[in-house]
Design brief:
Elements (H helix, E strand, L loop, with lengths): L1 E6 L10 H6 L1 H15 L4 E7 L4 H10 L3 H19 L6 E4 L3 H13 L4 E11 L4 E2 L5 E4 L8 E2 L16 E5 L7 E11 L4 H10 L5 H12 L4 E3 L1 E2 L16 E2 L1 H19 L15 E8 L3 H14 L9 E5 L2 E3 L23 H10 L7 E3 L1 H31 L11 H22 L3 H22 L1 H7 L1 H22 L4 H10 L36 H19 L6
Helix pairs in contact: 5-8, 6-7, 7-9, 8-9, 10-11, 11-13, 11-15, 12-13, 12-15, 13-15, 14-15, 15-16
Protein name: Methionine--tRNA ligase
Keywords: Aminoacyl-tRNA synthetase, ATP-binding, Cytoplasm, Ligase, Metal-binding, Nucleotide-binding, Protein biosynthesis, Zinc
EC number: 6.1.1.10
Length: about 575
């Protein structure tokens, strides 16, 4: 079985913040690393890329008197360095919508589903001041469903309903604030209606699809699917391949969804195996996982399946769409203009990225909106990372070196308490695997922490430092069992904190590079030599939060200088 992993393509006009990161790319990376351990590296592919077309970038380029591509080249390279280098995201292919493979694939795919595409004339908002048609996001107004006064023309940020500019109340141009007028123009539409029942049956029958995804998709379907515009009146994008569509480009949402397929094709083409890509897309032979924010559910749970169904190729539909709720920052939405939140090029200047990776997965909004607070962040680092995990590793490795000259002792006459913890290790590895398979990453870390705490309690109750002389057999059994638990904890943490997990494994005298998930259930071998102990984590100082404001101001000034033009 092949495993396909994808994260939503970040729009290249802005640097992602922590909420963006955990909602898609970081979550996908944790799952992809787990999947490689569980199912074999050769059976997993993880892709994403920069979404770089559309009117916002075109307008920014016009303002600056440069080409859109000159702006997105810099921004794409900057983001890619952050993801692959700073954040240690293990993409097999992080590409871009300006890729020639992507552009050609999109045009060929849409021509292949042309029987579901029709041409219609419609009236669209036109800004007479800016002299351009306004795409969905460049019309703002009041949502007709919930009354939110700053809804975009494609979606309401408050209620999540998909919108069109024509149904907004009191619409205004998002660029200049002028009320737009309606002008006739011709566009190409993809008809979603023929797929309504098939999508409904697929989403309803899925035993694994999260309930928030099912609910949102079914709500949209029950309202009645309609033809959706495929084209836009802007120059920066993939030229529409249809006859008579000169001057039109493909709507960014349709092409970005097809990027999941083109990124897979591009990866195997670069490897000299251009035919192999379909192994990760053929129905019945692949499980596919998509990591997105909840505002993207309709696109992934309705539009993407409809396009895949429209094709004559036997494409696999999503197995699980892991859609997170929103992460707030100290009770508020992230806002760069109001300096609320942390951005992914700022965070590494505050602490190591593995600390951030752990923090964000521990605060991952899997069931409801979650609130990032520094009080909770400090607790997680100081208590969970340092005390529950780091101190356990240090205690066990130190005692094996001190009492057994660095060798794992031979177990003899294990007692019930010893066997109970070994059984818990095996059960935890299986349970964490089941949680991760359901994309419940935060839930998986809860189980890992529970094992760490129980191992610490086991050590305290057994007290091998007291028994090493009076009951040496019991002391050796204790460190054999505790060392095996540390091995399991280190390997299970690898998807979340890969750099620190490698440090833990190195202290155990092991190489994590060739490990598999089920290796975590195997005890350490007697006679195996461990490495030297060293602190894995360190606590944040007690006055950390107090000094954070001043630190952030300094960091932001330096980071802003390094950002490319489009991201300033």
């Amino acid at each position: 079985m092949r495993i396909f992993v994808a994260s939503a393509w970040p729009y290249v006009q802005s640097v992602p913040h922590l909420g963006n990161l955990v909602g898609s790319i970081l979550s996908a990376d944790v799952f992809a690393r787990y999947a490689r351990l569980k199912y074999g590296k050769e059976n997993v592919i993880f892709v994403s890329g920069s979404d770089e077309h559309g009117t916002p970038i075109e307008i920014e380029a016009i303002k600056r008197g440069v080409s859109p591509k000159s702006l997105t080249d810099q921004a794409h390279d900057y983001d890619k360095r952050l993801f692959l280098g700073t954040w240690n995201i293990s993409f097999d292919n992080y590409t871009r919508t300006e890729s020639e493979v992507h552009k050609n694939f999109v045009k060929e795919f849409l021509l292949g589903v042309s029987k579901y595409i029709s041409v219609e004339e419609e009236e669209l908002p036109y800004c007479e001041k800016d002299k351009l048609f306004l795409p969905d996001r460049f019309v703002r107004g009041t949502c007709p469903y919930c009354g939110f006064e700053d809804a975009r023309g494609d979606q309401c940020d408050r209620c999540g309903r998909l919108l069109t500019p024509s149904i907004l109340i009191n619409p205004k141009c998002a660029i200049c604030g002028t009320p737009p007028v309606l002008r006739k123009t011709k566009h190409w539409f993809f008809d979603l209606r023929p797929f309504s029942e098939s999508i409904k049956q697929w989403i309803t029958a899925s035993p694994e699809m999260p309930e928030n995804v099912k609910g949102t998709a079914l709500s949209w379907i029950n309202e009645g699917l309609k033809p959706r515009s495929l084209t836009r009146d802007n120059a920066w994008g993939i030229p529409a391949p249809f006859s008579g569509a000169q001057g039109k480009t493909i709507y960014v949402w349709f092409e970005a969804l097809l990027g999941y397929l083109s990124a897979t094709l591009e990866y195997f083409t670069a490897k000299g195996e251009p035919d192999k890509w379909m192994e990760f897309w053929e129905n019945g032979k692949v499980r596919s996982y998509y990591f997105i924010g909840k505002d993207n559910i309709p696109f992934h749970a309705v539009i993407l399946p409809a396009m895949l169904m429209a094709s004559e190729r036997n494409y696999a539909l999503p197995t699980i769409i892991g859609a997170t709720e929103y992460l707030l920052y100290e009770g508020q939405k992230f806002s760069k203009s109001r300096k609320i939140g942390i951005w992914i090029d700022e965070a590494p200047h505050i602490m190591e990225t593995d600390y951030w990776r752990f923090l964000l997965i521990r605060m991952r909004p899997e069931e409801k909106d979650m609130n990032f607070t520094w009080t909770e962040a400090i607790r997680i680092v100081n208590t969970e990372l340092n005390d529950d995990i780091g101190n356990l590793v240090n205690r066990v490795v130190t005692m094996i070196n001190r009492y057994f000259q660095g060798e794992i002792p031979e177990p003899r006459n294990l007692k019930d308490t010893d066997n109970k913890l070994l059984f818990q290790v095996r059960e935890t590895v299986d349970s964490v695997g089941r949680m991760f398979d359901r994309t419940k990453l935060k839930g998986g870390t809860e189980l890992i922490l529970s094992l760490a705490r129980d191992t610490n309690a086991y050590l305290n109750s057994k007290a091998p430092w007291d028994k090493i002389k009076s009951e040496p057999e019991d002391a050796s059994n204790t460190l054999y069992v505790a060392g095996s638990a540390v091995k399991a904890i280190g390997l299970m943490l690898y998807p979340v904190i890969p750099t620190k997990a490698e440090v833990i494994y190195r202290q155990l005298g092991l190489d994590i590079a060739n490990a598999s998930w089920d290796d975590a259930k195997e005890p350490l071998k007697p006679g195996h030599r461990v490495g030297k102990p060293e602190p894995v984590f360190k606590k944040l100082p007690t006055d950390f939060e107090k000094k954070l404001g001043e630190l952030l101001e300094k960091i932001r000034g330096e980071v802003e200088k390094e950002r490319p033009t489009l991201l300033k």
